[in-house]
Design brief:
The structure is a single chain. This protein has 487 residues and is an alpha+beta fold. The protein has 4 domains: 131 residues, ibrinogen binding protein from staphylococcus aureus domain (ibrinogen binding protein from staphylococcus aureus fold); 48 residues, no CATH class; 119 residues, no CATH class; 110 residues, no CATH class. Helix content is 36%, strand content 24%. The protein contains 10 helices and 23 strands. It has a 6-stranded antiparallel beta sheet with strand order 16-17-19-18-20-23. A 5-stranded antiparallel beta sheet has the order 4-3-2-1-5. Strands 6-7-8-9-10 form a 5-stranded antiparallel beta sheet. Helix 5 runs antiparallel to helix 7 and helix 5 crosses helix 8.
Length: 487
């Protein structure tokens, strides 16, 4: 209740005692809705901030305000050098007025973001903190609204205090109260609220209330962002673990690839290939249909299946190696999530926030792009959309990275990093190409051509559309679109 009309009455009385006879040296604004006034009285400087912010608006005496060297605007020059005669609270509204020689500065503590500070002369507005062009030259008038309502908090005290309004006006103690996450300034102790602190100086009580409320709001926002990020990371890690833990499926796939290779090798070399599938007799007499690359011989297709079986075994071994790492990471994330949900310690929240939100902002590719760790040496980064493709290729990529893209169709840019300037091993290149094909319009094709070259041979013509590039020295690899553990 920092802008309650009874609070403003106490505040105006305190300001009058402090500022009557003080000379205004300067007035400036360095943040929206806030005016800083520097007075001189009895050889001492008095700094007052008048804030008409819709959430934290009030008037406070400050001791640690320094004028910034930039982004500061001088305001209300006509008042500088004048003495403040008195400070009053308007009888019919939430307005605190500073009376100078021929001018009056009114701080309007209106709700819904309509607060303002205006300077008048003979009842005509001559300047304003906001909307000055629209207000200058207009008449400053306040409609008589009668006695304003006490509000719910003070109304609830009528069962305990015979005349709440009189008790508020007569109070010489000022309270900072808390109930749950809510913190309020009050002229009385309120039933159902805990007294955090109490003061005999209204300025100190208001400053403390605003400080706690700002800190609470900041922590709430920080906590909300942190919880969202932690839950996102937990979900992603759980998905990766589920994929890596599917060992039975991986073994079955390995056996299937090896079996297909054996069946194709048993067909001989005189079989005529038509289309991208072949039906052969299995050892038990049943018929099996196998997908093949029609541009290759049966022996070459069999060799490809043997390679896939080997890759599947290697992938399973890689998964077994990575599973403990991901389980440990998941445990740490869940522990930090519980801490973030429960702690009231600002420093702990700040440390967690810096760890996770700072990491997310880093342009290391691990969160900005889809990321696939192919082995201990090579990592594949895949763009998420056209703009992200541009970022990946034109900013994140290094000249010796290997760039991949499904040929002849729209799709994500993919970037293979690791191994320096050396050409990646065939199995790594095929896995990277399969992922690039998966994130293209050819995802459902049996086999897809994927082009690859080093990043230094990829350029973006001037005026080209977002995500469009020109590729030189490209090579082509045929792969089946395939996605390992999705990030």
């Amino acid at each position: 209740m920092i802008r309650h009309y009874l609070t403003l009455e106490h505040l105006a009385h305190a300001l009058h005692r402090r500022l009557a006879g003080a000379q205004l040296l300067e007035a400036f604004s360095q943040e929206k809705h806030v005016l800083t006034l520097c007075f001189l009285k009895d050889g001492a400087e008095i700094v007052i901030t008048v804030s008409v912010d819709p959430t934290y608006g009030t008037i406070l005496e400050r001791t640690n305000i320094r004028r910034a060297r930039s982004n500061t605007l001088d305001r209300f020059d006509m008042l500088c050098g004048m003495q403040c005669a008195h400070v009053t609270k308007h009888a019919d509204d939430r307005i605190v007025s500073f009376w100078f020689d021929t001018f009056v500065m009114h701080a309007l503590f209106f709700g819904s973001g309509h607060g303002n500070i205006v300077v008048t002369r003979d009842g005509i507005i001559v300047d304003a903190l906001t909307n000055a062009k629209q207000l200058i030259g207009t008449t400053f008038a306040v409609a008589a609204a009668g006695t304003p309502p006490l509000g719910n908090l003070y109304e609830a005290e009528r069962d305990h205090v015979s005349d709440v309004e009189a008790a508020c006006r007569e109070s010489t103690t000022y309270y900072v109260l808390r109930r749950g996450d809510d913190v309020v300034f009050s002229l009385l102790p309120l039933h159902g609220w805990d007294v955090l602190e109490q003061y005999d100086d209204i300025n100190a009580a208001l400053r403390r209330t605003v400080g706690i409320r700002r800190t609470t709001a900041r922590l709430k926002s920080m906590r909300t962002q942190l919880l969202t990020e932690l839950r996102r990371r937990i979900a992603r890690t759980e998905r990766s673990l589920r994929g890596m833990q599917s060992d039975v499926a991986n073994v079955d796939r390995t056996s299937m690839y090896r079996h297909y290779g054996n069946l194709l090798m048993a067909q001989g070399t005189d079989v005529h290939i038509k289309g991208d599938r072949i039906t052969v007799q299995d050892v038990d007499g049943s018929m099996v249909t196998i997908s093949i690359d029609p541009t290759r011989s049966l022996i070459e297709n069999a060799t490809s299946y043997y390679a896939k079986a080997k890759q599947s075994v290697q992938a399973a071994a890689e998964r077994h190696r990575r599973i403990p790492v991901f389980e440990q990471r998941l445990s740490e994330l869940r522990t930090d999530l519980a801490t973030a949900e429960q702690t009231a310690d600002e420093q702990i929240l700040q440390r967690l926030n810096e760890r996770y939100m700072h990491d997310r902002a880093q342009d290391d590719g691990t969160t900005v792009y889809r990321t696939f760790v192919l082995n201990d040496t090579y990592t594949l980064y895949v763009g998420r959309n056209a703009a992200n493709n541009d970022e990946l290729t034109m900013r994140f990529a290094k000249q010796n990275d290997w760039w991949l893209h499904a040929r002849g169709v729209s799709g994500s840019h993919a970037l293979l990093r690791g191994g320096g300037n050396e050409r990646p091993p065939k199995d790594v290149l095929e896995r990277a190409a399969a992922i690039a094909a998966y994130y293209s319009q050819a995802r459902n094709a049996s086999y897809t051509p994927v082009i690859y070259t080093q990043r230094k041979y990829v350029r973006k013509p001037k005026g080209a559309n977002v995500g469009a590039v020109v590729v030189e020295r490209e090579q082509v690899i045929m792969v089946k679109p395939y996605l390992p553990d999705a990030p």
